[in-house]
Design a protein that fits this description.
three-stranded parallel sheet; two-stranded antiparallel ribbon; 7 helices
């Protein structure tokens, strides 16, 4: 399967010209700027004992590790919505097609903001595995979108505490609020009124938070690239 860079070239040409100007997401979040290996077990060793990993590495020792974690999830979401928007299920209404296009633009903006913020520290493009998704079926697409959005919100909520740079924390807060809007919309498409039910909001009115060790194995079902996690 092609990696995300090859997959998204044509879409991004339109997104970052007329289309994204029309639906830009807070100037790239407003801040301006599948296998999961949760430990280093099994990694190869370079000379002088330096670990060499297959795939990509999320090193949670600093803010860049958290940003790369978010970047990996945004790559996954952007790839999914690009595919949906390019060939929506026949059961989608005109309004649903338009909204999924908008969500596509938001996810690409999130992904590109994080890539820019990371600079040379950014992980490479992930290779996705969407073989379990029936992109021609409305029910399959909506169920996957719900899973991705709920997981994304919980992931940001669970990782925010690890950020030490105010600008990144503010940007993460802006991104997660948009992800929650996506989740609410998609949940209501599936079952009206379920946008804030007990599955995602607790008795204290707080949204679910999941730590990376809970999120990444779930995301791994849709990622072919091996993701290694260290210093978690």
């Amino acid at each position: 399967m092609k990696n995300l860079q090859e997959q998204n070239t044509q879409v991004e040409q339109s997104v970052f010209t007329a289309q994204l100007q029309r639906r830009s997401f807070l100037q790239y979040a407003g801040a301006g700027a599948a296998g999961i290996a949760l430990i280093a077990a099994g990694c190869k060793k370079r000379d002088r004992g330096i670990p060499e990993y297959e795939g990509v590495v999320l090193d949670f020792k600093d803010d860049f590790g958290v940003l790369n974690y978010a970047y990996a999830l945004e790559q996954l979401e952007a790839a999914f919505y690009i595919q949906v928007a390019s060939a929506p299920p026949s059961g989608f209404s005109a309004a649903e097609k338009a909204y999924f296009q908008d969500i596509q633009f938001h996810e690409i903006a999130h992904r590109e903001y994080l890539k820019k913020a990371l600079g040379a520290a950014a992980i490479g493009s992930l290779e996705v595995n969407f073989s379990s998704i029936n992109f021609t079926d409305r029910t399959s697409v909506l169920a996957t979108a719900k899973a991705f959005e709920d997981l994304g919100v919980a992931a940001y909520n669970g990782a925010g505490v690890r950020l030490t740079t105010d600008a990144y924390l503010v940007a993460a807060g802006k991104i997660v609020s948009v992800e929650a809007r996506h989740a609410a919309y998609i949940r209501d498409l599936i079952s009206n009124g379920s946008f804030a039910n007990a599955e995602v909001v607790d008795a204290n009115g707080l949204d679910v938070a999941l730590t990376p060790d809970k999120v990444l194995p779930i995301a791994a079902n849709y990622v072919k690239t091996k993701i290694n996690v260290i210093n978690l």
